[in-house]
Design a protein that fits this description.
mainly alpha, elongated
Length: 271
């Protein structure tokens, strides 16, 4: 990630933290919501998480964004859910009155970036994904999907591409319409936004993207697959093919959004 993108991400998270400041000023219980009949959680259980969140927010407000600031929050969550089996992230978030699930999502985004630059974090990345899927996979289908894709990439970096590929293949055998999984699988072979690697195989990446397009009915997934297909083609110098893919994806998107000049042809007809 470029320094500019890091600064923008830090500024974005700082704005979110600042919007939570008034609630903090009202006291530790401010902003909490509780479902009727739901017992209060032990303050001793919440204290370490609250303290870790506060320290992470302080670093963000100072202009720093790093998975190292967020990992203590995750460690505190794991400790709490180990002490209280069955405790969910949603319930913890209600008790804390803060954006705990957002923090977990941010850790999922930042940990791979930092781990690629600091190999000592690779094992933490994989363990983070595995722990989330073991304890919280049933809570949020979107976050679970993102986390499974992140785990596939972590397996690639900590073990082998073959193992990551087997993990994704098994998942897609069960549900071939997961567009994000096809994208992740293709990136194991080639990612035009990353530094080239000796074992890159762009043609295999193209095969996977085309197969993903053929098996997906979700419009948003198709958009992302087609955009990535166009990016890979463009990086290989196949400019005319790339332009056609991107143009068709754009027209299909405009058609769904009701653009008056849009072509309503389904984007997969291009392939």
């Amino acid at each position: 990630m470029s320094k500019r993108k890091k600064r923008n991400a830090a500024a974005d998270r700082a704005r979110r933290v600042q919007r939570r400041e008034p609630a903090k000023a009202q006291g530790p219980g401010a902003g909490r919501t509780r479902i009727a009949g739901e017992a209060e959680l032990d303050p001793a259980l919440l204290g370490p998480i609250r303290a870790a969140l506060r320290r992470a927010d302080e670093r963000v407000l100072a202009g720093e964004v790093s998975s190292r600031h967020l990992l203590p929050v995750w460690d505190a969550v794991l400790a709490a859910t180990t002490r209280t089996p069955g405790l969910t992230l949603r319930r913890l978030e209600r008790a804390l009155g803060g954006s705990l699930t957002l923090t977990v999502s941010e850790l999922r985004e930042w940990l791979p970036i930092d781990a690629r630059q600091d190999p000592t974090l690779l094992a933490r990345w994989r363990a983070f994904c595995e722990a989330y899927l073991e304890r919280f996979a049933g809570e949020d289908p979107d976050e679970t999907r993102h986390m499974r894709c992140s785990l596939a990439e972590a397996i690639h970096w900590t073990s082998s591409r073959d193992e990551a590929e087997a993990y994704l293949a098994e998942w897609l055998d069960e549900d071939p319409g997961v567009g994000e999984a096809w994208l992740t699988w293709s990136r194991l072979y080639f990612d035009p936004l990353c530094v080239a690697l000796p074992d890159d195989d762009p043609e295999r990446a193209l095969e996977l993207l085309r197969e993903g397009v053929a098996r997906n009915a979700d419009p948003e997934a198709l958009d992302r697959l087609l955009v990535q297909l166009g990016n890979v083609l463009g990086s290989l110098g196949r400019i005319e093919e790339s332009r056609r893919v991107r143009d068709r994806a754009l027209r299909a998107f405009e058609a769904r959004c009701g653009h008056p000049d849009a072509d309503s042809t389904h984007p997969r007809l291009l392939l």
